Amino acid sequence: MSKTKTRKLPLRLLNSYDLADFVAVCGPFFEHSPWIAEQTWPQRPFRSLEHLHQSLVATLTPAPVERKVSLIAAHPDLVGRLARQGHLTRESTSEQAAAGLTRLSEGEVAAFDHYNAAYREKFGFPFVICARENKKEAILTAMPVRLTNSRDEEIETAIAEIAKIARLRMLDALSG
After folding, report:
1. Cα separations (Å) of 145 from 115, 121, 127, 136, 139?
2. Domain at 75-157, CATH from 2.60.120.560, 1.10.260.40, 1.10.3330.10, 3.20.20.80
3. Cα–chain-centroid distance for residue 150?
4. Angstrom distances, CA of residue 146 to CA of 48, 72, 81, 92, 98
5. Dihedrals phi, psi of 127, to nearest 5 degrees
6. Looking at the domain 9-69, which fold is it?
7. Which of 54, 61, 77, 137 has the most crowded CB, counting CB atoms within 10 A?
8. From CA 58, how far away is CA 153, in angstroms rounded?
9. What is the chain's pLDDT, residue by residue, as a tens digit (176 residues)?
10. What is the residue extent of each domain of the chain?
């Protein structure tokens, strides 16, 4: 990874952006789901990065369950086919690498494949966890535990993890 720091966009400038530019910046915080940024844009100006994040999450929270499941389903499987083929978003690639998911033994890859398949079969969407807040061992430990949850519990858990992911992506892109 490059050691050069990318310049972060100041929040005061983001607050002046039109809808298209705002969505171009904030849309990627939520995997392939620009509707969250689109629906949050009218709430500008945001007082702080925390206020922006809270507003984005407040847009997501009352969304219908089908919309939440679509957001969850937009996330790739951890260590899945897309990751192995290099077809993830830049953000997902970086997040999986940070968790050590690009340096796995054959046995670990097989374990991820097993749990990903079981999880998708039970819930109908991929296992989502904030990879940057976890390492591969913690993720492999969490997968069978979360398989014991109900679908409603898993939707709630996945949305909470997505909010963490979005917050970290926001902090990467913006400065207060």
Report:
1. 10, 15, 12, 15, 10
2. 1.10.3330.10
3. 21
4. 34, 15, 22, 21, 22
5. -70, 125
6. UraD-like (1.10.3330)
7. 77
8. 19
9. 444 567 999 999 999 999 999 999 999 999 999 999 999 999 999 999 999 999 999 999 999 999 999 999 999 888 887 777 777 888 888 888 888 888 889 999 999 999 999 999 999 999 999 999 999 999 999 999 999 999 999 999 999 999 999 999 999 999 99
10. 9-69, 75-157
- Go through the chain and tell me how many residues it has: 176
**Does 114 participate in catalysis according to the annotation?**
no
With vertex at residue 63, the alpha carbon angle to CA 132 and CA 12, rounded to the nearest 5 degrees, is: 60
> What are 77's two structure tokens?
């499987």
Q: What does pTM read for this prediction?
A: 0.92
Candidates 32, 51, 53, 75; catalytic one: 75
